[in-house]
Amino acid sequence: MSIPSQTLLKAVPVLPAKNLNQTIQFYRDRLQFDATHYGDHLAVHVHGIEIHFVESTVPSGFQGAACCIYVRNIEDMYAYFSARDIIQPVQGLKDTWRRTKEFSITDNNGNKIRFLEKKD
Fold this sequence. Notes:
Layout: E1 14-17, H1 20-30, E2 34-37, E3 41-46, E4 49-55, E5 66-70, H2 74-83, E6 94-95, E7 100-106, E8 112-118
């Protein structure tokens, strides 16, 4: 038996944060996401994309995580974030062996946010 078709609607990553208030500032001010703070939980969102955060209870040895956001017109997205000077300079926009074009940013917590476009 398999999962019934069209029952899964959306996946939302939950990433660690060192400080939720600083994370709000990063996503709101640098990326132009909206933010909803629920006390011990934060949700950032824009155009149907959501990323949630929980404050890490282990400050020593904190390690960031990662998530992927698939987009259309990755060149436009790259130009948008390049103008904000937040793209990892070593990587830039690149074609991958996975038949994607992608770039990454690293947020204030060390989480890697990968933006990808599938190539035909």
